[in-house]
Every structure is written in C-alpha cells, then in structure tokens.
Structures
1.
Amino acid sequence: MTTADTPSAPFTELVNLASRLLGAGVVATNEDTFADAENLLVAKPAEFRPHTFGHKGQIMDGWESKRRRGVSADQPHPTDQDHDWAIVRLGVGGAIRGVIVDTAHFTGNYPESAVVEAASVPGHPSPEELQAADWTVLVPRTPLRGDTAHEFAVEDDTRYTHVRLSIFPDGGVARLRVHGEVLPDPRELDGLTFDLAAQEYGGVAEAASDRYFSSPHNLNAPGRASVMGEGWETRRRRDKANDWVQIALAGGGEVLAAEVDTTHFVANAPGWADLIGFDASTGQDPSEGEWFEILPRTRLQPDTRHRFRLDVGRPVTHVRINVYPDGGLARLRLTGRLTEAGRAALALRWFNAVPAAEAAAALVGAGLSAEESAALAAARPLADPAAATAAVAALQPTDGPDGEHSARRRSALWRLLGV
C-alpha cells in the first residue's frame, strides 16, 4: 500500500543501512542540546505534538542543535562555514545508493543546508579515530527546505561503514536514511552457518507478486516481527493463481534448513507454501533458467513458526517462496553456508568495493608484501577469479626457478579471496 507521502526514489527499495535493527548507531555529535541525535535513526516517521514543552523548549522528534552565535557583538552571526555534525555507524557495511535527509516538522528551525559524507573504517573505531578518517562527500552542500524529505541519489560503488551528516549553521533534522546494498566482509562468514536470506548478510527480496498491504522486504528483515504489519501480506486473490516472493541470497550456498513463519497471521495465513531454488553461478538468469524444488508444497498453520530440514544437494543463489493462494508471512529464514564458489564471488565483490588502502591492508594480512598488495589493489576491479589469478601472476618481481613468490602469492590470494 502506498501513500502520497511515501518516498518515490528507486533507491528507497534498498535496505536502510542506517537501521538500528541492523545495528546502526549515532557514535558522536558535537551538539544536540535541544533534541538527541539518536532520534535520526528512529524507524517510525517523525511525529509532532504541539505545545509539548520540556526544560529546553518544544520537544522535537529529531536531532536539533542550539542556535549558533558569532564571536562578538560586532560579529553576532555565525560564519558561512560554521556547522554542527553527527556521525552514524552503519548497521552493516555496504555501497550507498541514496540518502534521505528528512526535516519533517522542522519549519522555523531547519538548517540552511547540509552535507553528507562517508568513510570506511574497519573494526570498532572510536569517535576520535572516526574524526581523523578520510571522508568522501556523497551529497555536496545543498540547500534544505523545512518539513521535507530530501532524497539524494548517490553514484559511488565504494563500500562504506560510517556516514557523517553536517548541517549549516545549525537547526534540526528529523530522520536520516541511508539506502544501499549490503556487502559483508567475507572473512567474518568463513566457516559459519548463517541465514543466507538475511538482509544483514546481503540477502535481497528482489521481486514479488504483490505488496499491497506490506513490503516483501519485511520477510528477511532482522529479528522477529512484533506485529502483523511487520511481515509481508498480499491482497485477497480473486483468481486461481498464487503469490510469491523471490530472494537473492547473500551468496551461492548450500541451504540446510528453512523457517516459514506465520506469526501474527491468524486469519490470513496462507494455506500452503513451497520453496524453489535457482543456481545463477552458471551464468543463467533466474527469469529464463530452470528452477528446482527445495521444499514441496506443504500445509501451513496460522501464527506458527514452521521449521524444515532440507536436502537440496546442489548450490542455490536464489529462492522463491510460493504461497497458496494468498495471505501473509512474518519471516522467511534460510539457514546454510556459502559454497566455495559463492564465497569467492562474495569476496571479489567486497574486495573491489573497499577503499584501496583497506584492500591493500587486507592483502598484507593475507601474506603479500606491501608493494605487492598496493599493485594488486591498483589492478581492481577484478571481474572474476580468472582476472584475479592473472593480476597475481603479473606481480613483480617474477619468480625464480624455485617458484617461491608464486606459491606464496597464490596462498595469500586463496586465504583472502578463495581464488
């Protein structure tokens, strides 16, 4: 179901990397006297209750800094460069495709303009370390309007972990949304069994037959649904077809178990469901190739978590859940592990997207020299395993008769990229 207030930019269909459900948080701000910067990440739309005052004035549902002043009676106004800022740790690292700076309900106290920057800082950096990081401008300084959701498309394939919102010279912003594609660090998934469909690892609900009452993106959202509206629900069918959602997994994997959850769907759960899979690692397109059965059509109960052990016997990159004839699901979980090829493909996507210095540091950690690592990072993007192997073979110095350099380099490439 859509309304006139629903954001219309295509990037809003992508996951909000700044969602607290994914682990996002405001790690630092220089000023939030009037209203906490943490409000920027609240999931629900901003609200306004007139004539609701606290000790510091009207209570605002957003981030609001105090009014800036100049340095003296002769210079009472702030300079053109004076600004306030807030740094947000993204819940998961990813490629940012769009940003929303929403000034909802800030009408006489919104900023004159804003800048959005991003940085990639691995690990668990302190606020001081983040301040010293290399920041890239995603949204240059742009005028803002009051009570408006400003949508900014971003064209940058770099993987980022943090964003910084700067407002000039001061004022209030209700919400910040950072939409993009999740790119997990493959080293964190090595040897693990996890939910291959989950948003936090890069699973995407990329197509659905119906999204009338709620979004199919809820199916693989973090956590459990607390109400029916946090699941996926279709309109009532008046034909003889069925509804479905197609999910691209985090990577090619072996699916070991499924959970089909109808929690909160008491009078509108589907009667039956089945799961079919597709392996796109061969180069075929899911819209054209042949799908195969993962779970046969199975009866569902209302308000129930259904768990199934699976024996698929082949790699899976996409899964489609068919529900009969219509209805709603709270969540779909697909527990499994990456295949060797799936891990390598995920690792190449990650390696091509991280900043050059971060890529080089990862290669050093895997066993290459600093010079070799810098040269291989500069050779990106590496389109496929063959390109990665060729780039390693081109490193200098070339091998002697004992092949010492080649063996070490191949081992490092396998350790980091699985190639």
2.
Amino acid sequence: MNIILLGPPGAGKGTQARHLVETRGMVQLSTGDMLREAKDSGTEMGKIVADVMARGELVTDEIVIGLIREKLEAGEGAGFIFDGFPRTLAQADALGELLKATGQTLDAVIEMQVDDEALVARITARSTCGACGEVYNDITKPQPADGKCSNCGASDFKRRADDNEDSLRTRLMEYYKKTSPLIGYYYAKDMLATVDGLGEIAEVQGAIAKVLD
C-alpha cells in the first residue's frame, strides 16, 4: 500500500507517518531525509545530489523522482508513505508515471485538514527532543517535569527557529499557494480522504486507520 500525506506545516504528518511505520511496517519517504541520505551515500545519484547542494542550488524534480525510484525498486517494507512530495501538480504527474512504470499503485491520499489559527497556536508552543525527535507541546503535551524525554531519556530539547507566528504564516501561505491544487487533483481522481489534523494524536491515528482499512 502506497499513500500520500498532505497537510500544511505542523499538521502532524511526521507524527502520523512514524506511527504507520511502527504499526504497519511501511516506509516513510521524506524528501529531506532522502536527500541527506543520498548526499552521504557515495552512489552516482548521491554524488549528483551532493554537487547540487554544495552549489546551493535547488534539487530538481528529476533528481527527487530518481531517488524515489531507487526506493520503490528496493521494495522494502509494506508500502510507502510519501511525506513532503508531491508538492506541485507537475510532481504529482511525475509520481503517477513513476508508480505506473514500476508496477505500483497509489492507494490513498490523506489530507490532514487544520484550522490555521489553531495551528499557529499549537506550533508556536512546540518543542522536540534533540536526540530522538519526540514532539512536545507546552499546552497539550508539556516536557516531562524531570527534564528528560519520555521516549529516550535525553534532556536536550529544541525549538525550531521558524516556529514563530510570522514565519509560520509565511510557510502556510506558501503551502496553500503551491500545494493546495493537489487537493482538487486527487479529489478528481476519487482518491482523496480528509481527516481532522487538529484532533488528539490517537484520534487522528484512528481516522487514518479507517481510511486505510
């Protein structure tokens, strides 16, 4: 099973993707992670990525599709979660062609829908464990009183520099401008399902499970 998670920055895509990896054995394909992995891999594709990034240039769609192709052909796990890709209609078309060429299908596109004002309030209160990435929130899931991560025991907590209101609103505008056309694209293909991204983590997990099952 291959799925796409759509949603603005901070909607919780990463949290839900990790849950699917842990409970269903799926593989999360995050564009950023794939680029970092490729850069350090020493493969031909990795050398191309390293060269582009060293020059400070944007990685092309062709390179990202090439990295995804490598993952698809490796055939690991019980399916793939596309997180952060596609972002544009051109990328959606390219992904569709790639899946077809490799004999695979896209089984669901899940939009994690959020209210912008509530999202801003949630994200500006967010912090993460610097060691394992566990997410905390000053309001809904405060850092443990003993100052140690409940997941790994580390005590190094971080806040993203761009998790401030002005920066987040800019990121939201960029998301809606570039990525929102994908909502209509996949709706027209009768592949789109919508869940409330601002629910409790377990509630969102349950809603996604209903879509996939």
3.
Amino acid sequence: MIDRYTRPEMGHIFSLENKYAVWQEIEVLACEAHAELGESGITKEEAAWIREHAAFNKQEVDEIEAVTNHDVIAFLTNMGSYIDADVPAGQPKPSRWVHYGMTSSDLGDTALCYQLVQATDILIEDCKKLGEICKRRAFEEKDTLCVGRTHGIHAEPMTFGMKFGSWAWELKRDLDRLRDARNNVAFGAISGAVGTYSSIDPRVEEYVCEHLGLVHDPLSTQVISRDHHAYLAGVLATTAATCERIATEIRNLQKTDTLEAEEPFRKGQKGSSAMPHKRNPITVEKVCGLSRVVKANAQVAFDNVALWHERDISHSSAERVAQADSFIALDHMFSCLIRIVDGLVLYPAQMMANLNKTRGLIYSSKVLLHLVDTGITREDAYKIVQENAMATWREVQQCEPGSTFREKLEADPRCAKLQPSELDAIFDPRSFLTRVGVVFDRLEQLEF
C-alpha cells in the first residue's frame, strides 16, 4: 500500500522489520522448547545464549537473499551470524539448533498468523471507536426531523439519529465478526515438511504457540489451510462495505440538491483548482474507493484456499500484497470515518425544507390508513390517495404553483369524512415517530 494511506502502527506490522522480529521470536521459542524437552541435544544454556544473542539486520538479510533467492534461509543465515559472533573459537556454534526439524512454512505461516492477529487487534479498536461515535451521535440527533428515502425518493418522516443508530448496529456486527475472525486466524503450525512431525516433537509446536498466544493447528499440511485467511478477508470486505455504506450516505446527503449533511471542511482547505466555491466530499469518496480494493482482495484470499496437494507457493505472492493492502486500507478508512462522523456537520433547517419539498406527499400512507378506518375499502382508498398524490407530483416536478396534497384532499368529496383535526394529526411529521422510542431504547443497550 502506498504511504499516503498507511498509518504508522498498521504499516509497521506488515514491515519486514516486524516480520523478521516475529521470525526471530519463533525460532528462539522453538530452541527453548527443545531445551525444555531435553531430547534433541540443545542445552538450556545454549537456548539462553540464543535468546540473548539472537538478532538480525534487514539490509544484511536483503544482501544474502540476493544470492540465495530464499528469504527464510537468508534470515536464518543472518541471525545465526549474530548468535555465533561471540562464541569462542573452537566451541560448538549454538546457531546449529536454530530451525531444528522445521521447514520454512512452519516459520512463515506461524508468523503470518501472528501478524494478522496484531493487525486485526488494531481494526477491532478502530471499529469500536467508530461505533461508539455513531451511538453517541444517534442520541444527539434523536429528535432531529428529516425525510426518509427509499429508492432515492421521499418516503416518510424519520429522525437523523436513526441513521447514526443504524450505522452503530452494523458496526457492532462488524466488531463481532472481526473478533471471531481474529480467533479463527490465531493458529500456528510447526509440524515439518508435510505435517507429520517427522523431525520435530509436537510439543515444540504447542510450546511456541502458547507463548505467542496462538492455538496449534490440529492438522496442518506444510501450511496452515488458507480457509482461515479467506474467512478473515471476507470479514474485512464486509467491514469495508459497512464503511462504504456510511460514506455513500454522507456523499448523497452532501449533494447541493440535498445538503442535509457535510463532511468537515478544514480551515485552509481547497475544493477545486478551477472552482473556488466547491466543497467536495473527497474524504468519503476516498473511503468508497478504498472499499473496492478491500472487497476485491477478498477474492484473492478465496483463490488462495485451493493449493496443490500438501502445499504450493501460488498463494504466497498474492497474499503478501493483498493482506497488507486490505488491512492498511481498512485502517485508513476507519481513521477517515472516525473524524468525519464525529465532526459531521448537519443542517436541520435544510432537512425540514426537504421534508416539505413535496407539498405533503410524504403523509400519503397515513391518509390511506385513515380512509380505510372510515369504512372505505383499501383498494378504493389507495385510488383516491394516488390520484391526488399524482396531481401534486406533476406540479412539484414542473415547479408549478398549486395546492398542497392536503388541500387537494380537502377539496375531494370522497375524503369528506376526514375532519380538520384528523388531517392536522395526519400531516404532523411527529405522528410518524410515536413508537420510535423503542429504537433508541434498544440502542441504549448497545455496547462495544
């Protein structure tokens, strides 16, 4: 992922420095496990020496890899040189015990899962923070009237707080999925060339995994099966889709023709190189764009599940790109939305203007039910309401002066049974919200 979208903490997790540090810890833990078991020949003193002297230099590893064309061998060679540097001449080299009975995937796959756990922990905190902001803002705008839209068309009155609340609930589901996916990928495997433990005791695997906070894979081949990684990638894609949903709603609400909400416009910010008046929703547009990357990368993870026999390497190159990019992109998306949602500028007066824009058409459902209550069949009531509504629509569409939807109903003899007081109640936007309190009662119980 390019630096523009990489936050330092997440970027560090997928850096070579961090990967090599995790590799080092795994190799040292394996040596300590062998020493504890006392079966392979390594002594506890040698394991302690390895723990104290193990180190690596990224530049030196790169130089060795340029010759070996094998990153694990390059790393082990470099780490071994530091372990043995202070060993007196003629003495056995402790580095001979490093990687004892292991294969490259034992190291690489266990380390990768550890890194994915590290990265998921960051996203979990991101998700919690954004969810808590959405919940707070939902209650701040609990009574802020706006029009609800279905298919992009005005439907019925609602409150703006419900938008924030809906996002909060979806983020809670994302949070639950992220936690589950974290546990599902927190596995390690040190089982040898094809998973038979032919040259290493299974207790070494258990020791290493326990110290890393991982669970040992019950049956790995040479690799940890990629369904673990695919499930996580799918969860990242779903979470990215949530972020995109939030961003898309803000983009739609910021359109000049709607202008009910606006992402914060910072002091000194410029909207267009050609049009000084512009205040574009560029941050939420960026979120939508990055969501496409995360969702597309999920397909890469699904394709990585089917490997040849006990292992091939076709997955490796693809996931080195896709996994890091997905985590870094989603972390950046969260950071953007945390700022945007927290500071989202709302325009309640414009919300009311939009609510009244269709001259009362949004109250048609209430009119329909009240006509039914007077004894008219639903079919006849629907016809009466629709005829008057379509007449109003035509005048609204053509920007023609004309009577409101209510005035048309009052002039229609078929609606004579609807009393003025009854119409007052029907055309009160708050009448649609008499039961909305239950929504916020439920939201009150939401915890992240």
